[in-house]
Amino acid sequence: MGKKKLVIIGASPIAEIAYEYFTHDSEYEVCGFSVNKCYLNKDELFNLPIVELEKIETYFSPNEFYAFIAINYQQLNIPRTKIYIETKKKGYRIASYISSKAFVWHNAKIGENCFIFEDNTIQPFVTIGDNNIIWSGNHIGHHTTIGDNNFISSHVVISGSCKIGNNNFFGVNSTFANNLKIGNYNWFSPGVTIIKDVEDKKLFKANKNFSAEISSFEFFKIEEQI
Fold it and tell me: Residue 210: inside a domain, yes or no?
C-alpha cells in the first residue's frame, strides 16, 4: 500500500520539523501546507504548495487527505486548540506522529494530533489525550493521564500516577512528583520542581537565574590558590 496523504496546518519552523519527521519516519506523505490567509506570505515550502486554510477543502479533500496541526504553544496552546477543532469540523482525519526512536510501552494510549519526538519514555498504563506535543527526551511515568492540548518541552519528568489537565505548558527540565493533580492552563517555566497539586491558571517561575552573593569557590570551600 502507498503512504497516506497528509496536509500540515502551519508553515512555521515547527511545521518544517513536522514535515521532516513525517517524511522520513512515518506512514504519511506530506503533500502540502495550509495557513490562515492573513499569514500566507509565500506560495511554497519544500516545493509543496501552501494554501489558504479558509479554502483548504478546495485543494486537499477531507476524503483523501489526513491533517496535522503543527502550531506552537503560544497563549497556552489555545490557537492550536482552535484550529484543531476547526479542522475536525471540516471532516479531516487527524494524524499523529510517534518517533520510531521513542520508547512507548505497548498498552500506552495516545490520541490524535499528537507529536512524540525521539528519546521519550512513555511507561505502562499511560494515557495521552489529543493535540499534545511532547518534545524530545522526556519521561512520562506509569499510570499517568495527560489531557488535551498540552506542550511538553524537553527533559521533563512527570512521575507515576499523575493526572494532567488541558492546555498546560511544561518548560525544559521541569519535574513533577508522583500522584500529582495538575489543572488546566498552567505555565511551568524551565527548571521548576512541583511537589504539590496545582489548580488552574497558575504561573510557576524558576528559581533565581542570577548568581548568589557568595562565589562557587566559597560555597564548596575551595582554596583560591590552585
Answer: no
pLDDT tens per residue, range 105-125: 999 999 999 999 999 999 999
Give the residue numbers spanning the domain of 33.
4-94
Helix (H) or strand (E) holding 68: strand 66-69
Residues 6+ apart with CB under 8 A from 185: 76, 166, 167, 168, 200, 201
Point out the residues of the chain with pLDDT beneath 70: 1, 207-212, 214-217, 219-220, 222, 224-226
Exposure string for 42-71, b = 16+ CB within 10 A, e = fewer: eeebeeeebbebeebeeebebeebbbbbbb
CATH code at position 133: 2.160.10.10
Closest CA to 133 of 21, 32, 219: 21
Residue 32 CB contacts under 8 Å (≥ 6 apart), including other chains: 7, 8, 48, 49, 50, 51, 59, 60
Q: Would you say residue 18 lies in a domain?
A: yes
Residues 163 and 178 placed together within one structural domain of the fold:
yes
- pLDDT tens for 36-71 read 999 999 999 999 999 999 999 999 999 999 999 999
